[in-house]
User: Which sequence fits this backbone?
């Protein structure tokens, strides 16, 4: 019977560049391989350990590459339905209810674009009521204008849940999520 990997080796690890700049998220198993190959060093580890015949290693939560890697990043966070729900906390921007769909503030039939600053989360009732009309025609107002998410957490993680142990390296306060 093959050994079953520990639950922590299937977890995620934040990978930092040599300059402590967040690069991406890798599996804990990949992070262990990078550390064992001397391509990375563990910056923060979990309490669990991985044991092999000749070595015992704490499971890394955050690792830093030993050599600098130049990575060109996309200019914007990709727009997706899941990301819009995450940005708007799955709440309808019009009534505050539970959001089930996305809505274009300026309808596409009237020249609106499918961009972060024109797409919001909405409940089915508000989306159906608004249809292809403008907010001015209905007398509705947005509590705050929709905006493109920014920051390392959004660029790297999108709508993924942020491990609280990564916050220090992502430049995030304790109480805020991605």
Assistant:
């Amino acid at each position: 019977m093959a050994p079953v990997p520990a639950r922590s080796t299937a977890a995620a690890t934040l990978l930092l560049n040599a300059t402590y700049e967040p690069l991406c998220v890798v599996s804990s198993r990949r992070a262990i391989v990078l550390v064992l190959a001397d391509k990375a060093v563990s910056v923060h580890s979990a309490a669990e350990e991985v044991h092999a015949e000749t070595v015992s290693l704490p499971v890394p939560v955050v690792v830093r590459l030993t050599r600098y890697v130049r990575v060109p990043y996309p200019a914007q966070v990709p727009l997706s339905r899941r990301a819009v729900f995450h940005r708007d906390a799955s709440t309808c921007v019009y009534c505050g209810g539970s959001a089930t769909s996305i809505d274009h503030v300026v309808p596409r039939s009237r020249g609106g674009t499918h961009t972060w600053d024109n797409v919001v989360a909405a409940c089915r009732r508000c989306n159906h009521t608004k249809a292809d009309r403008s907010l001015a025609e209905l007398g509705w107002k947005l509590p705050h204008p929709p905006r493109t998410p920014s920051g390392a957490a959004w660029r790297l993680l999108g709508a993924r849940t942020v491990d609280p142990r990564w916050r220090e390296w992502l430049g995030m306060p304790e109480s805020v999520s991605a």
Summary: Residues 94 and 107 are 15 Å apart (CA to CA). The chain is about 20% helix and 25% strand. The two ends are 41 Å apart (CA to CA).
